[in-house]
Specification:
The complex is a heterodimer. Chain A has 7 helices and 5 strands. Chain A is α+β, with helices and mostly antiparallel strands. Chain A has a 5-stranded mixed β-sheet with strand order 2-3-1-4-5, covered by helices on one side. Chain B is of the alpha/beta class. In chain B, about 40% of the residues lie in helices and about 15% in strands. Chain B is built from 21 helices and 16 strands. Chain B has a 5-stranded mixed β-sheet, with helices on one face. The longest helix of chain B is centred in the C-terminal third of the chain and has 18 residues. The chains are: A alpha+beta, B alpha/beta.
Chain lengths: ~160, ~500
């Protein structure tokens, strides 16, 4: 069973397809994370209204589902901006000026780390290591990995 | 004869434009109507040269790098191109390495099972299939292989426990939640030679009597996840995975699972919780995962590099592998050189090479050209060391004697602009962000520690606050179930001990 990655969110909220995803992936060993990923990918975030449906399909309490959703950084509780910049602020990137770069991007996008701009154009998020540590600073911009990144190149990606 | 041209599709190479270079080369091949074929490989690990383009010649592959898309077409005209590196295998940075695990990475098409086999793949598995299961386990014990994830626990002993535990179902779990900053070997291997990991997991399965495996890959590695997904499909179609491994009586099925952005899930019990679909909270040990692991069943849980070392051991014998290394650290270690460094990348060498060789000879000093002030070895929970400790050989025990650890083999270089008090603060902040919340010192102490370091940085009651930090570190070390809380003191205390001048400044 394949789990799709990096697809732009394709659907507006609809409980039937949440239930369909959950039923389809339920036979997997340990199905909750694959289901949450699938929902996150399809809708762009995990809507509050999905939780009771998942609890019902998987025979869990709503609290259990809520606990899992809130534990992992990947599962969004609200939609992201049209562009998502996940910038690495771990040590290797720090050694190459990641903190300064983050400051520049915060200024240029008008957001703080972890926020989405008011016009919905961009979400800027911290990530802790993208495995591109010899080509720091690194960021994942709309699913594409960038190395030796500077503010101008990041802005150009988001400007598109 | 068809001219073969190689361009990596490793994520690091892609991050500096390898796809654009590949497109430019393809376009030039069509424009000139050449009899040439472009092959995408993993990375050789000479990451400062990416995108590294290679042309096959009768004498070997000639490399060019770093190549930009707008200059790629010129490679066809000019053998004396300014970016020419000569024969790639002869580049001293690569030639001096001892590549056992990364022997094929960057050379073969990662998804060609045929090429995998023609370059020595599956030999280990075929040998294993001819042996009694207990002999496989003993080979791994004899090889001296220790867990490459960081803990350094003997892999064969873990396998022995699982093999000896009776159960209707056992599992092989590969920990590919490579979250340490400065490490990328697992990623490179999954992208560049995925069948090696698959082969290692199958051998593990046969050895301990497990018929099912899971690879838990962090979501920050979408390229590795995609490559492994396809590699598993190819392996299933090729009779490597499924009800009869290479026509034998052994069954082995393999599935991938995607992490969801939690550093703690690299801790083995937390990873098992996550695989089962729960919050990634650490489990107390005992019971050991080898006895009660995934879904309560006996489980081998090993790092990517541990499992990827297995096929070589089974192909060449335990003694061959054990002959590399020093002391109780046997075999080779894929060291990952990163951060502020001129020539970063993957260096696979026998244990025992010094940190100085890694940082100065391979690394060539900092990328910024400024003096090296510190390195952090072993990820975010590893110690910060000054250059006066650089003669330390890469070895589990020697590093431990000096209050350091080699961890997963990451070496992050910092120049003299680094502020060590801020690095110590970051270690505590990171612990606060990534704590699973199970143990109080880690959940709350990390936040209080970061606040206390803020006071130190502002020059507030420095000596009293330094004492508080030391006290807190002791509580963290002794009062945490797992390595996140238990080892966060390492970067903090090493920064204080080796760079005291950075903590004394009163602003």
């Amino acid at each position: 069973m394949t789990i799709m990655l990096q697809k732009p969110p394709s659907a507006a909220w609809n409980p039937e397809s949440v239930r369909e995803i959950a039923e389809r992936l339920k036979p997997l060993d340990g199905p909750l994370l694959p289901i949450l990923h699938a929902i996150n990918d399809q809708f762009g975030f995990v809507d509050e209204r999905a939780l009771p449906i998942l609890a019902d399909v998987l025979n869990l309490t709503r609290a259990e589902v809520q606990g899992v959703v809130s534990f992992y950084h990947d599962f969004r509780r609200s939609p992201a901006g049209r562009h998502v910049v996940k910038i690495c602020r771990a040590e290797a990137c720090q050694a190459m000026g990641a903190e300064r770069l983050i400051g520049e991007l915060e200024k240029s996008f008008g957001v703080k780390l972890g926020e989405t701009s008011a016009d919905g154009r961009v979400t800027l998020e911290a990530v802790y290591c993208l495995g591109n540590c010899a080509l720091s600073p690194a960021a994942l911009i709309d699913g594409k990995l960038h190395g030796r990144l500077d503010a101008a190149r990041a802005q150009a990606q988001v400007g598109k | 004869m068809t001219q073969l041209i190689y361009v990596p599709d490793d994520a690091a190479a892609l991050s500096v434009g390898a796809d654009e270079v590949a497109q430019a080369i393809s376009a030039e091949i069509s424009r000139r109507g050449l009899d040439a074929k472009l092959i995408r490989t993993g990375s050789r690990g000479l990451l400062w040269l990416e995108p590294l383009v290679e042309f096959a010649t009768p004498n070997g592959r000639i490399g060019y790098g770093p190549v930009s898309a707008d200059r790629a077409a010129a490679l066809f005209d000019d053998p004396g191109h300014p970016k020419s590196l000569g024969l790639v295998e002869e580049i001293p940075w690569l030639k001096s390495q001892q590549r056992l695990t990364f022997a094929r990475c960057g050379i073969t098409d990662p998804l060609s099972l045929k090429e995998y086999e023609s370059h020595g793949g599956l030999k280990g598995l075929r040998n294993a299939l001819k042996m009694p299961c207990t002999d496989i386990v003993e080979q791994i014990v004899d090889s001296g292989l220790r867990g490459r994830g960081g803990a350094g626990f003997p892999t064969g002993i873990k396998w022995r426990t699982v093999a000896a535990t009776q159960a209707a179902q056992k599992y092989i779990v590969c920990n590919a939640d490579e979250g340490d900053s400065g490490t990328f070997a697992d990623r490179m291997l999954m992208e560049g030679d995925p069948f090696l990991l698959i082969e290692g997991m199958i051998i593990a399965g046969i050895a301990v009597g497990a018929t099912k495996g899971f690879v838990y890959i962090r979501s920050e590695y979408p390229h590795a996840f995609a490559k492994m997904t396809r590699a598993i499909e190819v392996a299933q179609a090729g009779g490597l995975l499924g009800r009869s491994v290479l026509g034998s009586a052994h069954r082995f099925d393999l599935e991938l699972r995607l992490g969801a952005g939690a550093y703690i899930c690299g801790e083995e019990t937390s990873l098992l919780e996550s695989l089962e679909g729960r919050r990634g909270q650490v489990r107390p040990k005992p019971p050991l995962p080898a006895i009660e692991g995934l879904f309560g069943k006996p489980t081998v849980i090993n790092n990517v590099l541990s499992l990827a070392a297995v096929p070589v051991i089974m192909a060449e014998g335990a003694a061959f592998y054990r002959d590399f290394g020093m002391g109780r650290s046997r075999g080779t270690m894929p060291v990952q050189l990163a951060g502020n460094v001129r020539r970063g990348g993957l260096i696979e060498r026998a244990f025992g090479l010094s940190l100085r060789e890694i940082v100065e000879e391979y690394g060539g000093g900092t990328a910024s050209g400024r003096p090296v002030r510190a390195v952090q070895v072993g990820g975010p929970l590893g110690s910060y060391w000054p250059p006066r400790l650089f003669d330390t050989p890469f070895d589990y025990e020697t590093f431990a004697e000096k209050s350091g650890m080699i961890g997963h083999g990451g070496v992050v270089v910092f120049d003299d602009t680094v502020e060590m008090a801020k690095q110590a603060r970051f270690a505590l902040e990171f612990c606060a962000i990534e704590s699973c919340g199970k143990c109080t010192p880690c959940r709350i102490g990390s936040t209080r520690g970061a606040e206390t370091l803020d006071k130190i940085i502002q020059g507030e009651q420095v000596s009293e606050n330094m004492l508080l930090i030391r006290d807190l570190c002791e509580v963290l070390r002794d009062g945490s179930l797992c390595a996140l809380g238990g080892l966060t003191p390492m970067p903090v205390l090493s920064a204080m001990d080796h760079f005291p001048e950075d903590f004394a400044a009163v602003k």
